[in-house]
Amino acid sequence: MARRGAELPPTARMVWSRSIADAVIAAASAGGIGIALSCVIMLLAVVGGASDGLQPIGLSILAVSAGAAALFSAMLGPAFAAVNLARMRMYRGAAPGSVPLRNAVEFRGQATSSSLFPLEVTLVCVAGAGALAAIVSGILWAQEPDAVYRDAMLCCTGFVVLAVLGVLICRGITRHRLAPVLAGLPAGAVGQRDADETILADTRENRRLLAARARRVSTPLDNARSAAGWCLAAAVVGVGATARLRHEPAWSWLAIAAAVLAAVCVVALIVLHLARWIQLTRLPGVLRGSPTEVEQERGRSLTRDLRDQMLATMILWSLAAYAGMGLVRGEDVVATSSGRTLGLLGILILWVAGLSLLTWLRVRLERLGPLLREEFGYDVPVRTASGDSSPGLV
């Protein structure tokens, strides 16, 4: 698809809600990756026979990552609900059937008729966790009559009541307050269609065309990142396989070589990530000159690529912060508890500051997105019946 014409400009609520939602997604995803990373660390410690030295670090990273994953996963519901409400407010001022509205809906999806559904799901999950905790506390109170178990059961029951009340309030708001607003939105703005609408049949020809286009727009950096990722996985497996035999001289050198390869791959992935950023930021200048056909294809997916790259940067930044807090919490490098507290606080402040800066940059990208799509065109994201997603064909 070539240039589509003007796009309905996003409101301030829209750009901030989408950017904050991306930050929450990144923090939750980094928590999940941190859980897997801590498990790998402890597994390598067990295989290498050095569990006493590495297990506290692995447990600390696990605790920090699990806490962050639980906290930010619970925030996903409010974040997505805020995005839905901001999308409704954005579409309210548009003319029915206008080209700007159609282009905006094409990229952002339709305003859902159940805007608070993500928040309801989150509250239901909180209620379920609270009910389980209340049952366990009740059983312990019955076995050992203690005020602590009784208070815990009462608090958890209170959480369940508040969560259920929140679900009922959300449904009441949707039915009574939001229903008239949804009914008054322009035609075509309300529905369940997301931006990734299924518009391609799952045929052999379509799969071939999508694969050919993916090969055309891929860059050497993409191939290098894939190679570095596979080498990192192989190096981690090599460290785990050879650490057990470290008393043998030959195997000891092999374990050291695998560890060095893993470190080199991590550095290479970071460098390639930065190189990808430079490549994407230089692409608009290339497109304004004399771009090739392949470069024009890359330009049509520029805003999506920038958004994905920003999300990956947020995930890496959060993952580094979780690992740093886990190391400070589990390692006895800091002699005093006050020093450990200051270290954790310093990493936390640095992480929040960095994530806030990345979120602000994400806001800037969200504001510039319609201008970039107007200048360079935009490929409609599609999803085949098999679930494979790819930019639309031109």
Automatic annotation (TrEMBL):
The keyword Transmembrane applies. Keywords: Membrane, Transmembrane, Transmembrane helix. The chain crosses the membrane at residues 20-45, 57-83, 116-142, 148-170, 227-245, 251-275, 310-330, 342-363. This is Integral membrane protein. It comes from Microbacterium arabinogalactanolyticum.
